[in-house]
Write a structure and sequence with these properties.
The complex is a heterotrimer. The relative contact order of chain A is 0.14. Chain A is mostly helical. Chain A is about 80% helix and about 0% strand. Chain B has one domain. Chain B has a two-stranded antiparallel ribbon. The two termini of chain B are about 40 Å apart. The relative contact order of chain B is 0.14. Chain C is elongated, with a radius of gyration of 21 Å. In chain C, helix 2 packs antiparallel against helix 4. The chains are: A mainly alpha, B mainly alpha, C mainly alpha. At the B-C interface, helix 1, helix 2, helix 3, helix 4 and helix 6 of B face helix 1, helix 2, helix 3 and helix 4 of C.
Chain lengths: ~80, ~260, ~130
Amino acid sequence: MSLLVEFLLIFSLILGAYFSFLAIKSRDLVKAIVFSAGQSSAFALAFFLLMAPDVVLAYLAVAVGIYTIVLLYAVKKTERFEEDE
Amino acid sequence: MSLKDAVLGVAMAVFLLMVSVVVVLGGTGWTPSTEIRPLAKFYLENCFNVFNRTWWAASPEAVTSMLWDYRGIDTYYETSVFFLAVIGGVTIFRVTEAKLHRKMDDVGLSLIVKTTTRMVFPLVVIVSASVALHGNLTPGGGFQAGVILAVGPLLLIAAFSRSFLEENLKLSKDRCLIIRSVGLIAIALLVALPLMAGSLSLMQNQAKPWSQALQLPEAVGPIWTSGTLLFFNVAEFLAVGAGFTLLFLLLSAPEEELKRAIGL
Amino acid sequence: MTIESFLQICGYLVLAAIMAISLYGIVKGRSLIKKLIALTILGDAANALIVYIGFRFGAKYPPVLPSLTPAPEDISWFVSVAVDPVPQCLVITAIVINMAITMFLVFTVIQVYRIYGTTMVKKISRLRG
C-alpha cells in the first residue's frame, strides 16, 4: 500500500472525527444531521480506500441518503432545537 | 462544558482505547497484517476454483459467495432481524389505509426539483436492478441493491408527495407488505429446498461430497446464475427494497391524520 | 517504527476517538434525536473498525475475481493480492440491519413525541402519570 493512500485514509478518518465532533456539539438538530451526513461521506471514502466496494455500495445509499432524509422527517415531526436545562 | 463532562469524555476515550487494544492484540498484533489469514485464504481459493469443485460456490465474487453460501445461516438470521424491525415499526404505526385520507394541498417541491426527480428515479431503479442481478459476478448483491432501490420512492415522496406514490405508481402500504412477504417466503423456500430434495444440509448451493441430492446449475446457457446465489440476491432485493419503502410510506403520512387514526 | 506502521496505529486512535465522541453524545445528549444521531455515528465507527482490523495492508485488489474462465495461475495470483473478504461480509449485513433498527427507533421517538409532547430526556423523566 502506497504512502499516499495511507495518508488519504488517515485524512478521511480525521475528517470523519471532526464532522462527528461538530454533529455532537451543535444544538440545532438540522445542522447536526447535515454534519452527520458529512461524516458519512468521509467514512465512505475510507471504505473505498480499504478496498470494500460492496460496503461502499450499501453504505453510501444508507448513510448519506436514507439516514439524512429519515432523521430530517423525524425532526420535522418533533422539535428542532435542543433546549437548555 | 463542566469538569464533570470533561472527565466523563476522557474516561470513555480511555475505556474505548483499552477495548480496541485488546481486540487488536487478539486479532492481528500491533500493526495490521500484510499476510492473508487462513480462513480468508480458504474462501479466496475456493470461491471460484473451477479445477477442484469440492468446496466451490460457483461465484467469482468472494463476498457474495460468503454471504449466501459459506456463511449463509448468519445472513438468514440477519434477515429475520430485519423482518422483526420492520414489523415493529409497522406495529407502532398501526393504522389502516382507509383512515389515512390524502391531503389535496400537498403539492411537493418546485418544478425544477420535480423534473430532476422524474429523470433520476428510473435511473435509480435500473441501477439497483443491475446491482442485484449482477451481484454474483461484480460487487453488489441483494442488500446493497435493496437499499439503493429504497432511495427511489424516498426521492418521490420528498419531491412530489405521498399520494403521488400511491396514485401513480399504485404502491400502497399493503402492496409493499405483499412484495416484501414474497421476497421473504422465497428466501425461506430456497433455504429449505435442499432439505426437501433429500440432502442433509440447509442452504446448499453446489453439491458437496456427502450430499449430491440437489445441485442447481451454475450457468443457464450464457447466463451465469451461480446456483442459488442469483435467486437469493433477487429475493433479498425485493424484501429489503419493499420493506424500507413501507417504512417511508408510514413515516411520511401527515401527522394530524395519524394522530386522529391512532386516537390521541 | 516506520512511518507506515505509525500511520496504521494512528488509524486505530482516530477510530477510538470517534467512538468516544459518539458515546459521549449518547450519554449526554439532551434530545432523543441527538442520541439517535450519535448512535448512527457509533455504528458507523464500529463497522469501520471491523473493516480496518481485517484489512490486509499491502493488498492491491478487492475480493472479486476478474475472470469467468480462470487459469490456475490466475487463482494463485488472486489469493496473493486480494484483501480479506470476511470482515466485509460481516459489515454489509450489519449496515442494513443497523438501518432497520434506526428506523424502528425513529418510529418510537415520534410516538414518544406524540404521547408526551417533547423529546427532551429530562422533561420526559419529570413527567408524572
